[in-house]
Amino acid sequence: QVQLVESGGGLVQAGGSLRLSCAASGRTFSSYAMGWFRQAPGKEREFVATISWSGGSTGYADSVKGRFTISRDNAKNTVYLQMNSLKPEDTAVYSCAARRRSVRDYEYWGQGTQVTVSS
After folding, report:
1. DSSP conformational letter for 89
2. Rounded distance, CA 72 to CA 52, Å?
3. What's the number of CA atoms in the CB half-sphere (13 Å) around residue 33?
4. Is the pLDDT of residue 27 over 80?
5. Distance CA 51, CA 64 (A)
6. How many Å apart are CA 55 and CA 32, to the nearest integer?
7. Is residue 23 a contact partner of residue 88, using CB atoms and an 8 Å limit?
8. Burial (CB count <10 Å: 0-12, 13-18, 19+), residue 110
């Protein structure tokens, strides 16, 4: 079982930056691949970024590539999402998720943190 708690959301002007954090419980954090997802009002949840268990491999949605960076610190059981050059369309609830390396779908989800980008 993994529990995930996000933090770092808030209100920022377009062009600004935020760094989200996702703290995970448990001693096996380093065995999980992690991801960030977001859901805007009236829209379906969408993939944002993913990082492998070791941090050696990352992937991004086209809409955030070049602006967002996912990283992890396995010693701190934490995954981060650095968001730069934010746009109003980035406004959403951002959630982190975890999955075991042997599993395709994400198994554990956090409650989410609100990010609002004003124009």
Report:
1. G
2. 9
3. 18
4. no
5. 14
6. 10
7. no
8. buried
* pLDDT given at position 101: 85
Residues ≥6 apart with Cβ < 8 Å to 108: 1, 2, 3, 4, 97, 98, 99
CB 28 within 8 Å of CB 81:
no
71 neighbors 82 (Cβ within 8 angstroms): yes
Give the residue-averaged pLDDT of 36-54: 96
Q: Which residue has tokens 């996912």?
A: 70
- What was the pLDDT predicted at 108? 95
Q: Which of 61, 35, 65 lies closest to 50 in space, CA to CA?
A: 35
